[in-house]
Amino acid sequence: KGISPIMSLNNIENIDLEQKLSLQSICNFLKARTSYDVLAVSYKLIVLDTKLTLKKALTILNNNNIVSAPLWDAENGKFAGLLTLTDFINCIQYQIKNNKNDGENIIDYLPLKELYKLETDKNFPYKLDDVNIHPFQSLFQACLEMSKSNSRRISLIDFDEDTGKHFVISVLTQYRILKFLTLNCREIRFLKKKIHTLNIIKTFDTIKFCNIHTPVIDVIEILSKTGVSSVPILEQVNEKDYKLINCYESVDVIGLVKNGLYNDLTLTVGEALLKRNENDFEGVYTCQEDETLFNILDCIRTNRVHRFYVIDKNGYIKGLLTLSDILNYILNAGTA
Fold this sequence. Notes:
The chain contains 13 helices and twelve strands. By secondary structure, it is of the alpha/beta class. The protein has a four-stranded mixed β-sheet. A three-stranded mixed β-sheet has the order 1-2-3. The two termini are 39 Å apart.
């Protein structure tokens, strides 16, 4: 006999109400927990002195298998920003734009303390990140600060009022926050609305992409200008449809230049992928538009995922869903 229109409408209204109440509860959960609560009982923290060169910093990041580290100004006893792969991408872009392939690489000699000035002087849109928060402030406030600064991570900094000295406690990422939510907040199971109804998917026409024949140099420009950490590799199927093949990440670029070999940047993306260490690659995660937000968060609970490429049943790309999109939706909808 089918579902009556009245029953169907009531079901939609119930899902809407459940979603609204759940988002409010999730925001209350974030307000009741501190950033300190997310930290593991035992963890390793790498802090870099601003007197180090970029090359030494890159070696330390590679040796410890991390992609970011807080900077420390020892002379003043203060936190000096958060070094990320975006900063290295900016320097590589500077090297390319200035045709400095004469054996002298800026990454080899530039001290970390001069990095922000270089990025400012050269008008890079995404510079050394200095957003920070006290670890006892709420998780909700940490999410707000990241949203305001368009950052994917935030440094946790304590402060000694007597000496004026800073203490670097840790770095909190969007992934860690969302995983903490999935493990500790039961209300996420009631987020049953389809993601295509939430206005959180970046549409295909707003996404920068490449193909396997694109030179790595061109991808570096995309990474530097947009501040993203991954560019999808697509194959054009017809006039309007593109199939998702893979993605090229900022960490892949760093892998090419960590030994100072800028000649590898003339490779195509396809050739560069052959040099990728698959053990370090977390994979490409996809979803479809009719997934629920709960399904997306449940995937984050069990996998180290930072973005979802939205595809249709044919594998054609339709958009992009990032952790920033998810967190911003929770903050905005949960406090509306």
